[in-house]
């Protein structure tokens, strides 16, 4: 049975949600294996826009089902809001989703902490304020709350009292929600999930099911925001690479393919190194045409040229076997397009960063290629071929618009030319 992982090949916001939604028609299970509500996956169904922050990007009109894995940190209130949005147009769809009770909960306390910590930092890291970092911190420090705790009232009260005691000592009694109010809040959310008939099932129980059918693994953010190998500390707090499928009980060796999604240019949200950032009117024009504003926060994204050293780094780190390129149409009409082909790192030319530290010291070395009037033009095909030659990874699919069906294969492009 086919198993495909789709991850972001840059700093996130590459259009993974639409890409996953396109491929999901061929898979029975769509699995989110990491991340939280700090990034949005935008999909279109019958011309209507949906932004999922937590839910896997399943096809509402077919029989595909979604699974939220233990590597996620889940804001249950946000999750319910997403269910309700889909239920309004697709009644009963919530019962097609399964949640691993081993996943961790993002609490209102975590959101308070997120804001407090950002104000305490000498150099803010650009957090979204959604509580993701503090929830992952609690997970690692063994102070977190797993979702199965919601179904054991005595254990839930005990854990909330313990967590609250510690946090109030750390933050000098600045948290505003009492343990009892938190208990009532979580019990209400549990009741909402039960009303919606959402399933709670572990990856252990699903192991045979997943291995007897087709599974599409949906990553969060992008490789360069991965906690271990991204531009630390300007990263997210979870796994953004294909190895994150281990949280659902899979090995990367069990994957048939790993697709990296990349834009024809590069964007980044928040602080941190960005070697190819463009501060000219061209960068501003690309931002406006590409509607480069965060799906979660609305923040304007930083815009730059395509970064091949970063893509080579992503290929190695996440074992990418194919690319899906998006937003080539945003660059339509430019006479010339710049591409970063290497870095100057302290006087040494590098085609691939050795460590994430190289991104902080990198000075881009550019080449210029001819632009294209449309993505059906020979110059866009040449641009793709240039990327393939430089990275060693073929571009199998091209996205040319926001709608799910606005996808074509490389062969489609060649025929149109």
UniProtKB/TrEMBL annotation:
It holds the Pfam family Adenylsucc_synt. InterPro entries: Adenylosuccin_syn_GTP-bd, Adenylosuccin_syn_Lys_AS, Adenylosuccinate_synth_dom1, Adenylosuccinate_synth_dom2, Adenylosuccinate_synth_dom3, Adenylosuccinate_synthetase, P-loop_NTPase. SUPFAM superfamilies: P-loop containing nucleoside triphosphate hydrolases. GO terms for cellular component: cytoplasm. GTP binds at residues 12-18, 40-42, 301, 327-329, 399-401. It catalyses: IMP + L-aspartate + GTP = N(6)-(1,2-dicarboxyethyl)-AMP + GDP + phosphate + 2 H(+). The active site is at 13 (proton acceptor), 41 (proton donor), 139. Its EC number is 6.3.4.4. One of its GO terms (molecular function) is magnesium ion binding. Binds 1 Mg(2+) ion per subunit. Its cofactor is Mg(2+). Transmembrane segments: none annotated. Pathway: Purine metabolism; AMP biosynthesis via de novo pathway; AMP from IMP: step 1/2. Keywords: Cytoplasm, GTP-binding, Ligase, Magnesium, Metal-binding, Nucleotide-binding, Purine biosynthesis. Its main location: cytoplasm. It is an enzyme of class 6 (ligase). IMP binds at residues 13-16, 38-41, 128, 142, 221, 236, 299. It is found in: Cytoplasm. One of its GO terms (biological process) is IMP metabolic process. Signal peptide: none annotated. HAMAP family: Adenylosucc_synth (MF_00011). Plays an important role in the de novo pathway of purine nucleotide biosynthesis. Catalyzes the first committed step in the biosynthesis of AMP from IMP. Belongs to the adenylosuccinate synthetase family. Homodimer. This is Adenylosuccinate synthetase.
């Amino acid at each position: 049975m086919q198993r495909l992982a789709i991850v972001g090949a840059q700093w996130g916001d590459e259009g993974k949600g639409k890409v996953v939604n396109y491929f999901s028609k061929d898979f029975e299970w769509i699995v989110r294996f990491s991340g939280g509500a700090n990034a949005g996956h935008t999909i279109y169904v019958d011309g209507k826009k949906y932004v999922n922050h937590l839910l896997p990007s399943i096809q509402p009109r077919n029989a595909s089902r979604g699974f939220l894995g233990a590597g996620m940190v889940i804001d249950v209130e946000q999750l319910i809001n997403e269910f309700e949005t889909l239920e309004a147009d697709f009644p009963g769809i919530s019962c097609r989703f399964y949640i691993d009770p081993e996943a961790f909960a993002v609490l209102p306390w975590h959101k308070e902490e997120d804001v407090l910590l950002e104000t305490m930092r000498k150099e803010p890291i650009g957090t979204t304020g959604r509580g993701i970092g503090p929830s992952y911190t609690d997970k690692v420090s063994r102070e977190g709350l797993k979702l199965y705790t919601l179904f054991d009232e005595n254990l839930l009260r005990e854990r909330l009292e313990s967590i609250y005691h510690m946090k109030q000592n750390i933050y000098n009694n600045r948290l505003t929600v009492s343990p009892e109010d938190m208990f009532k809040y979580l019990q209400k959310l549990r009741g909402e999930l039960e009303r919606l008939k959402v399933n709670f099932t572990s990856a252990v129980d699903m192991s045979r099911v997943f291995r007897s059918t087709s599974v599409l693994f949906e990553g969060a953010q992008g490789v360069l925001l991965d906690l271990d190998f991204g531009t630390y500390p300007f990263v997210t707090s979870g796994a953004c690479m294909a190895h994150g499928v281990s949280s659902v009980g899979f090995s990367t060796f069990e994957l048939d393919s790993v697709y990296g999604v990349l834009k024809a240019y590069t964007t980044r949200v928040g602080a941190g190194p960005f070697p190819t950032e463009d501060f000219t009117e061209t960068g501003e024009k690309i931002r406006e045409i590409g509607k480069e504003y965060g799906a979660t926060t609305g923040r304007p994204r930083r815009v730059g040229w395509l970064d091949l050293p970063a893509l080579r780094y992503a290929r190695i780190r996440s074992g990418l076997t194919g690319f899906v390129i998006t937003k080539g149409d945003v660059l339509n009409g430019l006479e010339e397009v710049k591409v970063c082909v290497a870095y100057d790192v302290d006087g040494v030319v590098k085609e691939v960063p050795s460590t994430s530290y190289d991104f902080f010291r990198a000075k881009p070395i550019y080449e210029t290629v001819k632009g294209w009037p449309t993505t059906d033009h020979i110059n866009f095909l040449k641009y793709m071929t240039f990327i393939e030659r430089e990275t060693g990874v073929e571009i199998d699919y091209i996205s040319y618009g926001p709608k799910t069906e606005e996808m074509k294969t490389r062969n489609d492009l060649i025929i149109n030319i």
